[in-house]
Structures are given as structure tokens and as C-alpha cells.
Design goal:
homodimer; about 475 residues; alpha+beta; Rossmann fold; Translation Initiation Factor IF3; 3 domains; five-stranded mixed sheet; 23 strands
């Protein structure tokens, strides 16, 4: 009964995932190893993500700009930890205009260096602060193992880079932007996510600390979904970004950066989709409703057109599939593409004063009276779907959330079913590494609520300092 | 009296241009030779351009997608003319992940090759046609001489790539998209532009023909402003893009591509701006109105806030500058940034029941009664400014439009004042090259109206085949 092009999720999760990517025309492999083509259906989801996040960023005072794609080797090398973290995975341009370059240029893996370089020549006084910049762009990291959306050499993202007069302001910004990602994942993508702090080992190269939003996929594997970094004065010192403070003394400002990427399209698939194809939460679906006329009689055409018109007029993104394909073909196309609501309009139903709605998330068929208030009905149904999808994803996450008190617990859990594993930790990197030896189980984040700590380190048994969520990551 | 940071336009046009770019915070040089940082003020103009064009493209059925940044050398080489045209100016990635690559990858200078590669594996039948794709992205061309916006190694653009069943459809698409660019330049950017066809020598590498939109800058130099290419089956044959046609026979589809870039920000400056800074046409201005309160009395604050609120509610992009800078400083900042209308609200004016409007384009100060219908007044004034700016630019263009009957005419014109030079041409490349010897005067476009041809070739004196507009280009 499922879509023939899609391997059942419970048979082979990885294959199911790539089958969905292909069947819903979200992306395809390209002739460039490790790089994908984002097809119109996939790109439309990214455009919707951009629209929603960009609006929020701007409401909070951020403005967009655009830094160069290329970074000279010397500039990249100025901050030691950053270069250590990224050097192994950059691509180098060594020839341009038919000549060998005197200094090689890397394609940006991230743009802290370029922003610092810019800030260094533009920030003179406290009056120039803060700068709340963001850019939407492509970046490149030479990954060995790649997977569409989840990990590809080139990906699209936004990177916010802000610079502030005080430590407090920068800390607040780091926190605020993590709040935005958390809101975006929970409220818009219907992905129940938890926020916390990365351990020293897992934080961003060069950051003082990293806040992260972590989401659990259907199979119990964890996806990092948005990070926000506090840099303190690390980069401003390395790149000599100085300003005259209110006492007219030279000082170094404080920085943050924060980003989220096209990998979240992968997250949407792995949390919500099923064996019939993509399932999209209404708030992120580029098309929320598809209207499929059954037959071509005047009355069917008239009702279908009126329906589309009213929905569109009220801000519900909908389209009428009046192509010459069969209704069955259209149903399955709308299904595999994840359109939240399908409306079927046929002669027989009209004769009986009926109209049919089909929910994509539950595949439930609902017959209503033809004289229903269509706009408010659809609005409510979209909200119901959004909430139900969130609640289902939350239920799944809660079912796959475990507590471990010792190493054997972790092993038992991972041998049965991976998920979020809550366990206290002493804070030593040695214990963290030992835990990782169990099937690559990594610290995902330290929960910032200290009241959760109630005992001993899951590894060494010494007094715990942190309550940590662990898991296997994508 | 002019802005001190800006060299007068009539003293040194090139310096005036870069002074405006810097003073209005549109862009800055970066540490990467030939690449710029697009600063928030410049990027906001690009966002507005994107918003307007993207809406049009989508209304005409186009969808966005995203191809990879990198092109393998072998793929680039498949179409002979394209590679000849672009090979001298590409940048090559030769190392990735700390290893030398077995095949070098170029950073896309344009993406025909990638689209063809994608189409080859996705188009099987006439049912898969047309594909009307577009992408917004960065491209790189290793230019020797660079200038902010006008010519930089990396730039942002959109590139439309469509593929059709019939020649006619593709020709119509080429024409339609040229129409969009022409509309965009005339109606939105207030830049009076002429459309025509490139000569064989000047067409896009690999195209059957190229349509172009050409605009005259204040100094009489010409800027190419959007091109639309008809490829016929040239690329589909080179990249083996085949499909089963309606007779179920194998055939090659027909292609187009069309693009416009961030260089149009440079065009806006060079057509409209003055010695006081940037001047933006209201339809492309990210901020259309600035409200500057003079003083901080309750009544001033109240009136200023109410004014902003009403304008915003009615879709007029406006902001209130209530920072602690002096009114004079704010006036000159708004002026250099090119905000079309400045509204001044002060105690004395309010006491006299007055409100002051200042037009950026004419710098005219208009005092109106405080009880004016502010929304419709501002709407009308914005339209007036838009039209006046267009008419002024058109007047300037017409003044700098000349006719030449022989080579001496061209020389005389260019020795006095460059501009659009209308002259008939026999069609031979030899004559075209001879004309270019006069100060680099190039054919800009063949006007598609044959009735304009009325005589002999400006160079050889033989019977003319085309009426051509010539000029010196950026």
C-alpha cells in the first residue's frame, strides 16, 4: 500500500530517507562529489524557512549583508582554534585567471574571519556598536561522508555575526538567538527540541561557549539544529578589533555568531515523514492545500476555482491541480510531496452537497457539507495538523528518552533503541571520551537547569557537575 | 555646500562614484582582491531588487532551485564556445580536505553546464517540459580591473535557465524575460533603457543570440543591464539532453538563460545620484521616508510616532530617527543615504500647524499644513519623485544620444562627450572592429526595428543591414 518508490521506514531508515528526498523531488546528487542540486520542491521549503527567520531577525534589529566567498590563507590563520577546527575540511582555490595565485584562498567554511576583518576597519568608537549583522549564503566543508541535506560539502545557511560593547549584551544576544532557533523548531517545524550548552569538547572552534538546539529524529538519532556561540573577546583580540569606549579608552568588543542550515530540511523529513512520502507541518509547507477536481464538469470546475480563490485571498497557500493526469495520480503526487490538506471536489459529492478533505499527516478522509465556511474550516484544520504533528513527534521523542545511571545502562539503551539519554556527568573530558566509545555516543548538551543534577557521574561515579543529554548524532 | 566626503561629480566621475559607495555605506573593499563586502545599506537595495524580480518570475511560472557552486573541469569543457569564453576568467579549486584533487573544480562563472547536466538526467519525455528554473546565487569571474558593484570578481545575481519543447516557446521566453528586465529598469529603477540584440561578436559565449538591455549613465558611458540568451539546441546537443517528443521520437529540447546582477546597484548610483550622496527612486528604496523629530517635546514625539505608524500601516517603508544625534547630522545622513522623502517635525512648526517635507531628488523643502492627509500626500509625492527621476534621466539620456554618419562623426562625438551613438552598420565584423578602435567604442545593440535603417554603414559606406547603438561601456 505504500509508495512503491519508497523503502518502508522500518525496513531501512537510511534508504527510506534518501527515497523520500528523491520521490518528493527535494534534491538530487550532482556531478560534483558531495554536492547536491536543491530542486524546486526542496528550495521552496528553504525559501519559507528564510522568510520566517529573516523576518524575526529583522524584528530584533539585525540587518543582512554579504561578505566575500573567499578567505585568504593568512586571514584564516589568525585565530588558532578556528583554523585548527576548520583547516582539515576546507577547499582551496590556487589558480585564477589562468595563473597560479601567490596566496591561496579558501572557500568560506564559516565567516568569522571576514566579519572580524570588516569590523576591524569599521568600528572606532562605542557609538559604532552594536553591529547586528547576518548573511544568507553558501559555505563549503570538505566532508568525507555526505548525505543530501544532512551533510553535504556545500550547504546553504544563515550566519549571524554580532559585536557588542559589553559582555552582558553579547551574552544576552547569544541567548536570545538560541531562543529564536528553539521557537523556530518547536513552533514552526513542529520538531520538539531541547536547548542546552555544548561541552568544552563539542563547542565551536574558537567560541567561549556554544548554545545548541538538539532534535531527536524518528529513529532515535540526534540532529544538531541551530547553534549560537559566545566568543567573548577571543576573535576581537586575534583580529585586533579595537574601539574607544565611553571612557575614551581602547578596548576590545564582545562577539557572537549563530547559524542554522538547509540540514533542517533533512530534519523535517526524519521527524515527520512516513512510508507514503514527505509530511510537512502546515506552517513550513510552501503549499498548504491542494485542490483536486474529479472530472471536468462545469460545476466541479466552478466549485474548485472558487475554493482556491477564497483560500488564497485569506493567505492560505493553495493550488488547483487541473492538469490532465488522473485523480489517482494527483492524489499520490500530493501525498508524496507532503501537502498538508488535499481537497477533493467531484460531481457525485457536489450532488450530495458534500466536499472531501484528506489530512496528509493521518491520511484521514473527512467528508463535510458543501456549505461549510471553507476558510475558517481549513485554517482550523491546518492548526490541528500542526499541533497534532508536534504532539506526535513529542510523544515519539519522549518514548525515546531514557535515563542512564551507569555505563551498562547506556550500552543497554543503545543496544535496544537509540534516543536521548539523560545522565549526570562529572565534567571530565576523560569520562566524555569513554562514553563516546559506546557506539559513538556523544554529549549533545548540558541542560542549563542545575536542579536536574541528582547524583553521580554516569562514567566514573564521582560527584556530578552537570546533567547532560547524550546520543548518537547525524 | 556638498557633502565633504564626496568628490563633485563633474570634477572626477570615477572618484565621485566610489565616494558615494563608501559614504552611503553600500559596499567596501575586502581583504580579498577584487571582492567586495556588500554592507547593509547596499544589501537592502539588492533584497528589494530580489523581492520585485522574484515575484515577477514566479508569476510567470518560474521556480527557484540551487545548483552546486563548483563545476568539474570535464563538465565545463563540453560546450566549446562557452569554455572558450569563460576559461580565461575562472578560479580553480585544486585542493580539498588537505588533499590535491584528481580533477580540478572551477567556481561557477555561470551555470549553464550544471543545469544541462541536471536536465540530462531529469528530462525523459515532452511531459517533463518546460522547466522554468531560476537561481539566486554568487558567481565568480577573475576580472583584472575591478570596481565596486560594476565589476567585481565575485558578484550576486539571478540566472534563469529554461528548457522547452519547441523553438517558438524558447524564443518567446527569451523575449518575455528581456521584457521583464526592460520593465524593471524603466519602471522600478527609473533608468530609461533600450533593448536590442547583441551582434555576433558581442553575444554570450554559446548563445544563438543574445537580447540585451542597455542603459546610459550620467557621464555618457553605457552599462549593460540584463541579458537574455536564446540557445536553441546548442547546449542540449553538447550535453546530450534528449527527450521523447509527442511522436515518441528522440529529440533535443530548446533552451534559454537570462540574468541580472548586483551591478545594477552601480547603475542606480551612476544615473541618479548627485554631489550630496545617493539618490534612490522610491520604488527601489528600502526605506522611502525618514521622519526626523526636532527636539524631544511630548508633542513632537507624539506627532512623529503617529506619522510613522500611519505610513507603515499603509505600506510606506518609513523610519523614525529618534537617536541622540543632532537634527543637522540626521538630515545629512538621510541625504547621503538617498532616502526619497524626509519629514521634519518640530515644536515651532507644530505651533504654526505646519509640517515640513524635503524631497531628496530635488532637495526642495515643502511646508504643508499639519492636518494634511499624510498617507495619500506621501504616496503622491513618492510617485512624483519616481516619475520626475525617470524624466530627468531620460532627458539626460536624450541629450547624450547622437547620430553618426561616418567615422569622423563618431570621433567628434567621443572627443566631446560620450553617449549613445546611433549609426547604421553593414553587419561585417571588420567594420565593428574598426569602430572599436575609436576609444573602444563598441556595438551595444542592434535595434530590432528595421525601419530605423536609412542608409549606409558608418564605417565602410556600403549598404547598411542594421541600425545599431554604439557606445563606450563599463
Amino acid at each position: 500500500m505504500n509508495n512503491k518508490a519508497i523503502t518502508p521506514r522500518d525496513v531501512d531508515f537510511a534508504k527510506w530517507y534518501t527515497d523520500i528526498v528523491r520521490a518528493a523531488h527535494l534534491a538530487d546528487y550532482s556531478s560534483v562529489k558531495g554536492c547536491i542540486v536543491i530542486e524546486p520542491n526542496g528550495y521552496a521549503i528553504w525559501e519559507k524557512m528564510q522568510e520566517i527567520l529573516d523576518k524575526k531577525f529583522k524584528e530584533l534589529g539585525h540587518t543582512n549583508c554579504q561578505m566575500p566567498l573567499l578567505i585568504p590563507e593568512n586571514l584564516l590563520k589568525k585565530e588558532g582554534e578556528l583554523v585548527e577546527g576548520f583547516a582539515p575540511e576546507v577547499a582551496w582555490v590556487t589558480e585564477g585567471g589562468q595563473k597560479k595565485l601567490t596566496e591561496k584562498l579558501c572557500i568560506r567554511p564559516t565567516s568569522e574571519t571576514l566579519f572580524c576583518d570588516y569590523y576591524a576597519s569599521h568600528i572606532k568608537s562605542y557609538r559604532d556598536l552594536p553591529k547586528l549583522y547576518n548573511q544568507w549564503c553558501n559555505v563549503l566543508r570538505w566532508e568525507k561522508e555526505t548525505r543530501p541535506f544532512l551533510r553535504s560539502r556545500e550547504f546553504l545557511w544563515q550566519e549571524g555575526h554580532t559585536i557588542h560593547e559589553t559582555k552582558e549584551e553579547a551574552i544576552n544576544e547569544t541567548d536570545q538567538m538560541m531562543g529564536i532557533y528553539n521557537w523556530f523548531h518547536n513552533e514552526i517545524l513542529a520538531i520538539p527540541s531541547i536547548r542546552g550548552k555544548k561541552t568544552e569538547k563539542e563547542k565551536f572552534a574558537g567560541a567561549e561557549y556554544t548554545l545548541t538546539n538538539e532534535a531527536l529524529m524518528y529513529n532515535g538519532v540526534v540532529l544538531q539544529a541551530g547553534t549560537s556561540h559566545y566568543f567573548g573577546q577571543k576573535f576581537t583580540k586575534a583580529y585586533d578589533v579595537k574601539y574607544a569606549n565611553r571612557e575614551n579608552k581602547e578596548d576590545y568588543p564582545y562577539q557572537t555568531s549563530w547559524g542554522t542550515t538547509t540540514r533542517m530540511i533533512g530534519g523535517l523529513i526524519m521527524v515527520h515523514s512516513d512510508d507514503y512520502g514527505l509530511v510537512l507541518p502546515p506552517r513550513i509547507a510552501p503549499k498548504q492545500v491542494v485542490i483536486i477536481p474529479i472530472g471536468t464538469s462545469d460545476i466541479v470546475t466552478k466549485v474548485a476555482n472558487k475554493c482556491k480563490e477564497e483560500l488564497e485571498k485569506n493567505g492560505i497557500s493553495s493550488y488547483l491541480d487541473d492538469s490532465d493526469k488522473s485523480p489517482g495520480f494527483k492524489f499520490s503526487e500530493a501525498e508524496v510531496n507532503g501537502i498538508p490538506i488535499r481537497i477533493e471536489i467531484g460531481d457525485r459529492d457536489i450532488a450530495n452537497q458534500k466536499i472531501v478533505f484528506v489530512r496528509r499527516d493521518t491520511r484521514e478522509k473527512i467528508t463535510e457539507s458543501l456549505d461549510i465556511e471553507i476558510v475558517s474550516y481549513v485554517q482550523n484544520l491546518l492548526e490541528t495538523i500542526q499541533n497534532d504533528m508536534y504532539m506526535r513527534a513529542k510523544k515519539r521523542r519522549d518514548e525515546l528518552t531514557f535515563t542512564a545511571h551507569n555505563m551498562q545502562d547506556i550500552e543497554n539503551i543503545l543496544n535496544t533503541q537509540p534516543g536521548f539519554i539523560h545522565a549526570d556527568w562529572c565534567g571530565s573530558q576523560k569520562c566524555e571520551e569513554k562514553i563516546k566509545e559506546i557506539k559513538g555516543c556523544k554529549s549533545r548538551c548540558i541542560l542549563e537547569n542545575e536542579e536536574l543534577i541528582d547524583g553521580k557521574c554516569v562514567c566514573c561515579g564521582k560527584k556530578a557537575k552537570h546533567h547532560v543529554v547524550w546520543g548518537i548524532q547525524y
